[in-house]
Each structure stands twice: as structure tokens, then as C-alpha cells.
């Protein structure tokens, strides 16, 4: 028996939350946040972990790793669009064209291919991943507020810990099925990677980026995910490459570049 996607997501971030709290206690001595800020951290936890992680994990199970990598790269576009709607910076027509092209790329990606036309699970997985990408974009945008007040370590730690509150009821059924025979060496190594590198290290870097260069520019680095994801899925999992995938990648990449261009360069 192996871990289900929701059980793995919850276990990974439960371990990460405990590890980050210990690091926070050692580094900053005072790990606590004021009660008045708990609701905002809870809001971030719902977006970045309670909603995004189950959606991404289950979507990845139903779809392909290459699809997941491409769809998640829409998150930076979400950040740019919110910035435009809230009028926090000048956004020109070329930036909006970039937003449109990125979503068009996702449409090409999730549109049923001939070889998958009868597989509704892939379409459902892509749809769940797209919703998750929007949640992560919202988390990145609203997360910049807390890193201006708290350290990246404290911001990331409490976002994860409070996010676990909403992850638990969603993941409980999957989590309750875990047996002792599930924890084999491969799974343990994957959990260590997900806990230390993919959670502790990456989230600290991500929150630090939000603080230093802002949400839009930090989110744009998620473009690298699609390159690594598509190549890795092809090399490791032997996932098929088709013209719609390349067209989707091209449109998402072009849209990301246009949506992130600063008005001063136009």
C-alpha cells in the first residue's frame, strides 16, 4: 500500500510545520504571533495549504506531471491581474495581452487530446490544478503583507501551521488509511525531500523573495517549474510529448513574459 495524494500532502506539511516551528524557536527565540494577526495567517493558510495543496496533489494524481507543471505557471499571471485590478501599479495593454495568452495556453493544454479523449480524469485533474494555481497566486499576492511585518521564517511557519487546520478535514479520510507497510525507504526519502528541501528551504526562499522583490517578480520565477516539470516527466515517467503541450508551453511562457514586463520598458 502506498500513500494517497491527500495523505502525503498532509503528512508532508505536518512534518514541515513542526520542523519549521523548531527552527523558528531556535533562531528567533520568540515564535509566537499576536492574536490580532491570527485571522490573516489563517486566511493565508487556507489559500496556500488548505486549498492549494489538496487541489494540486489530487490533480497531479489524476493528470500528468507535465500538465501540472505547465498549469501551475499561471500563478504569476494571477498576481499580475490582481495588481492591475487593485491599481497598485500601472499595467499597460501588453501586460493584459500576456494574461490572455497564458490562459489561452492553459486552454490548449487541458483540451482533450486524441489519445486521452476518453479519459475524463485527466481533464478533471487539470481543472483542479488550475484552481490550485489560482489559490497559490492569491497566496503569493496576499502573503507579501505579512513578510513586511514578520520574518520569512515566521511568516512561512504560521501559514503552514494554520493551513493544516483546514487541510486535516479534507485529507483525513486518505490519512486514516495509512498503514505501517506504507513507509518504505523510497517513500521515506521522498518525505524527507518534501519536508526539508521542498517545504522548509523553498518556502523560506519564496517568502524572502516576496519581501525583497515583491509578489509579481517572485511569482514569475515559477516559470522554471514548467521547464523542469515537462522535461522531468518525459525523461523519468515517459509521459508523451505532443504538439498541444508544446503550444501550451509556448503560449504560457510568452504570456508570462508579457504580463511581467514593466511599463517603463514599453
Summarize the structure.
With 266 residues, this protein is an all-alpha fold.
Describe this structure in words.
- Helix content is 77%, strand content 0%.
- Helix 7 runs antiparallel to helix 8 (185-213).
- The chain is globular and about 50 Å long.
- The chain has one domain (5-265).
- The protein has eleven helices and no strands.
- The model has no long low-confidence stretch (mean pLDDT 79).
- It is mainly α.
- The chain starts with a helix and ends in a 6-residue tail after the last helix.
Oligomeric category: single chain
- Report the uncertain regions: none
Q: Which band does the percent of strand residues land in?
A: under 5%
Number of domains: 1
Blueprint of the fold:
Layout: H1 5-28, H2 38-62, H3 65-72, H4 75-85, H5 93-110, H6 120-147, H7 152-175, H8 185-213, H9 215-220, H10 223-236, H11 243-260
Helix pairs in contact: 1-2, 1-7, 1-8, 2-6, 2-7, 3-6, 3-10, 3-11, 4-5, 4-6, 5-11, 6-8, 7-8
Characteristic terms for this protein:
266 residues, mainly alpha, 11 helices
